[in-house]
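Q: What residues go here?
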């Protein structure tokens, strides 16, 4: 959709874009508010499910890495502070990240709620997020925990092959190319991302479990965690999610 000029003048925005957005907002107005956190290891399917959840409930998708980059690019006061830390090679503080999330939530696209992905990663971050939401008079409704065995993830991830020029992806078991190692369309060789190997995955999973378990325990004690069977087909996982958040 074409973005409106900074002045708020909509005269140059195409009528079809305006109507599409208007109809979307009318459809969204009757939807209940939802504030959802997605937790899961690499390759668990969060990237497949979040757009479906976002569209169904008219939520905004907040990925902290993207938001940090956007705040830095927009030179917001918080973005400038984040850039200063990043330039020094320091980690951006939890308070800054929560501030940037707070800022993002004020946008019209987040009016019906949000999906948070990649945050909180620690219990301290979860507590700071809760405190910020409490000030707004809201709270996290559901934490969706994409549970899946490491061995299944290894099979999913180490079998991935990419055609670099187009981004087309294949899987040796689940979606093999017609000719092994070659792109179906161009016949060019496929490559594997350097992160998509068993060794890298093992260390990423170890870090994930160590870091995330306390966060899941924190939300479980509040009674808002739902454990999903992320090894099921995407369609089955979608219906589990819809049941969990409805």
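A:
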């Amino acid at each position: 959709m074409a973005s409106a000029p900074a002045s708020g003048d909509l005269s140059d925005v195409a009528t079809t874009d305006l109507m599409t957005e208007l109809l979307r907002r009318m459809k969204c107005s009757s939807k209940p508010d939802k504030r959802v956190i997605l937790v899961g290891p690499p390759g668990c399917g969060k990237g497949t499910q979040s757009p479906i959840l976002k569209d169904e409930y008219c939520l905004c998708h907040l990925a902290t890495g993207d938001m940090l980059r956007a705040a830095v690019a927009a030179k917001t006061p918080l973005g400038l502070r984040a850039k200063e830390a990043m330039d020094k090679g320091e980690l951006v503080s939890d308070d800054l990240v929560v501030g940037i999330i707070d800022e993002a939530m004020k946008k019209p696209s987040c009016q019906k709620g949000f999906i948070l992905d990649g945050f909180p990663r620690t219990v301290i971050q979860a507590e700071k997020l809760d405190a910020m939401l409490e000030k707004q008079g809201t709270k996290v409704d559901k934490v969706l925990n994409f549970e899946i065995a490491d061995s299944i993830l290894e099979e999913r991830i180490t079998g991935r092959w990419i055609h670099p020029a187009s981004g087309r992806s294949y899987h040796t078991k689940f979606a093999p190319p017609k000719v092994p190692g070659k792109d179906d369309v161009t016949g060019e060789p496929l490559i594997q991302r350097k992160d998509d190997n068993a060794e890298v995955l093992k260390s990423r999973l170890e870090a994930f479990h160590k870091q995330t378990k306390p966060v899941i325990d924190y939300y479980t004690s509040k009674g808002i965690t739902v454990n999903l069977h992320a090894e099921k087909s995407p369609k089955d996982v979608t219906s589990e999610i819809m049941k969990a958040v409805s």
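A: Context that may help when evaluating the design: The longest strand covers residues 34-39. The CA atoms of residues 34 and 113 lie 5 Å apart.
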